[in-house]
């Protein structure tokens, strides 16, 4: 396939190649948006954890689960990675909810 360069980017010559390039750009942007959604929902949960706002944490946890499951189902991240993120987030939440134990000496 003969490629020309446009602003340093190789451009396809054939119509089918041009269409594929357009499709790839759209897919890439969609994937990046989904991953950014995951990051923002996790950040929202962590902010609520820092404020010790557990009512907001419960809702944010549901949102995190929902977005991670959706992204994993679409194949953007591996299902095991989604499970690992969920496990770590729940561990953080449980740690924040736990009362500090006093050492008996």
Give the SSE layout.
Blueprint: E1 3-6, E2 9-12, H1 15-50, H2 54-73, H3 79-97
Antiparallel strand pairs: 1-2
Helix pairs in contact: 1-2, 2-3
Summarize the model shown.
By secondary structure, this protein is mainly α. It contains three helices and two strands, in the order E-E-H-H-H. It has a domain at 31-97: Methane Monooxygenase Hydroxylase, Chain G, domain 1 (Up-down Bundle).
Broad structural category: mainly alpha
Kindly identify the CATH topology of the domain at 31-97: Methane Monooxygenase Hydroxylase, Chain G, domain 1
The end-to-end distance, rounded to whole angstroms, is 77 Å
Main beta-sheet annotation: 2 strands, antiparallel
Low-confidence stretches: none
Q: Into which percent range does the helicity of residues fall?
A: over 70%
Mean of residue pLDDT? 89
Tally the beta strands.
Answer: 2
- What are the secondary-structure elements, in order, as H or E? EEHHH
Per CATH, the class of the domain at 31-97 reads Mainly Alpha
- How many helical stretches? 3
Strand order of the largest sheet: 1-2
| Assigned CATH superfamily of the domain at 31-97 | Ribosomal protein S20
Question: How would you characterize this protein structure?
Answer:
The protein is built from 3 helices and 2 strands. By secondary structure, it is mainly alpha-helical. The protein has a domain of 67 residues: Methane Monooxygenase Hydroxylase, Chain G, domain 1 (Up-down Bundle). The chain has a two-stranded antiparallel sheet with strand order 1-2. Strand 1 and strand 2 form a beta hairpin. Helix 1 runs antiparallel to helix 2 and helix 2 packs antiparallel against helix 3. It is elongated. The chain starts with a strand and ends in an 8-residue tail after the last helix. The relative contact order is 0.10. The model has no long low-confidence stretch (mean pLDDT 89).
């Amino acid at each position: 396939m003969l490629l020309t360069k446009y602003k340093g980017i190789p451009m396809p010559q054939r119509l089918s190649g041009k269409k594929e390039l357009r499709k790839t750009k759209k897919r890439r942007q969609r994937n990046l948006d989904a991953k950014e959604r995951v990051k923002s929902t996790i950040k929202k949960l962590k902010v609520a954890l820092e404020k010790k706002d557990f009512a907001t944490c419960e809702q944010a946890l549901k949102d995190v689960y929902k977005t991670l499951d959706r992204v994993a189902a679409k194949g953007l991240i591996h299902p095991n990675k989604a499970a690992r993120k969920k496990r770590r987030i729940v561990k953080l939440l449980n740690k924040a909810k736990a009362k500090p134990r006093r050492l008996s000496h």
